[in-house]
Specification:
Strand content: 15-25%
Number of helices: 7
Radius of gyration: 31 Å
Oligomer: single chain
Largest sheet: 5 strands, antiparallel
Number of strands: 8
Distance between the termini: 36 Å
Structural class: alpha+beta
Shape: rod-shaped
Strand order of the largest sheet: 3-2-1-5-4
Order of helices and strands: HHHHHEEEHEEEEEH
Helix content: 40-55%
C-alpha cells in the first residue's frame, strides 16, 4: 500500500511538472509578457503547489471518515488544489503591493479552478489506466459448498467423519454431507495429498511435520494434527513434507 501511494505521488508530481511546462509554452492569462524561463519556473511552481494542495484532500477525507468515489475525489482535489494556488497568488500580490479585493480574488480562484480541474482529471485518468487488473480466481466446486464466510479461505485439510467431510480452512471449519473421495475430486488444482484413509492435507496447510516412533504426523496452521498412515508415509516423504 505504501509503495502504491509513493507511485501515485510520483506520478501526480510528474504530471504537475509536465503541466507547468505546457502552461509555460501556452502562456495563458497574460503570462506571455514574461520571459520563457521565469514563466516556466512560475507555472511549474504553481502546478506543484496545486499537486500538494490536491494531496491534502486525502488525509482530510480520512479524518472525516469519508470514502469519496472518483468523481467526488476529482471535485474535492480540484478545490483544495485551487485554494492552495490561489492563496499563494494572493500572498504574492500582497507582497508586491498589489492587494486584491474580494471580487478580484474570486475571479482569480475561478481561473485557477479551471486549470486545477483539468490537471486533477488528467492525474486521475493516468492513475486509473495504470492500475493493474485484478484477476479473481474461480472457486472450486468444493469451496462453493462451504458456508459463505469460508468460500474465500485457504483449504488446509479434509477429514472424514461418518458420512460427512470436515473441511478445515484458514477461517474455520465446515461439515459437508459427502464422501471424502468425492470431496477430493472437487478440490480442483489445490496441491495436496491423501495422508490417511480419513485425511487429505493441502501442502499450504502444513505448519510442521514430526516423526515419533516411526509414525509421521502433520501439524496444520489451524492447530489440528493430521496422522500419516504407514502406507502413505513414503508418498509424504517423496513430496518433501518430512
Amino acid at each position: 500500500m505504501q509503495d502504491q501511494s509513493s507511485r501515485q505521488l510520483i506520478s501526480g508530481m510528474s504530471i504537475c511538472v509536465i503541466a507547468g511546462i505546457i502552461l509555460a509554452i501556452l502562456a495563458p492569462y497574460g503570462t506571455g509578457q514574461i520571459a520563457f524561463i521565469p514563466r516556466l519556473i512560475y507555472w511549474t511552481i504553481l502546478c506543484i503547489a496545486g499537486g500538494i494542495g490536491a494531496a491534502i484532500f486525502v488525509p482530510l477525507t480520512r479524518a472525516m471518515n469519508w470514502q469519496p468515489n472518483r468523481y467526488w475525489s476529482i471535485i474535492g482535489q480540484s478545490i483544495t488544489s485551487s485554494l492552495t494556488v490561489t492563496a499563494m497568488l494572493i500572498g504574492w500580490n500582497n507582497y508586491v503591493g498589489n492587494r486584491l479585493d474580494f471580487i478580484e480574488a474570486l475571479v482569480l480562484f475561478s481561473l485557477v479552478l479551471l486549470i486545477g480541474a483539468i490537471i486533477t482529471t488528467i492525474v486521475h485518468l493516468v492513475e486509473r489506466s495504470s492500475v493493474p487488473e485484478i484477476t479473481i480466481e474461480p472457486r472450486t466446486p468444493l469451496m462453493e459448498r462451504l458456508k459463505p464466510k469460508l468460500r474465500n479461505a485457504d483449504i488446509y485439510a479434509l477429514t472424514a467423519e461418518d458420512h460427512y467431510v470436515r473441511v478445515i480452512t484458514s477461517k474455520g471449519e465446515d461439515l459437508i454431507l459427502m464422501r471424502l473421495s468425492d470431496a477430493i475430486k472437487e478440490l480442483g488444482d489445490i496441491k495436496g495429498l491423501p495422508v490417511h484413509r480419513s485425511w487429505w492435507v493441502a501442502e499450504s496447510g502444513i505448519k510442521s511435520a514430526r516423526k515419533i516412533d516411526g509414525k509421521i504426523s502433520l501439524q496444520l496452521h489451524s492447530g489440528q494434527v493430521a496422522p500419516v498412515s504407514r502406507s502413505n508415509s513414503k508418498t509424504v516423504k517423496q513430496a518433501g513434507w518430512v
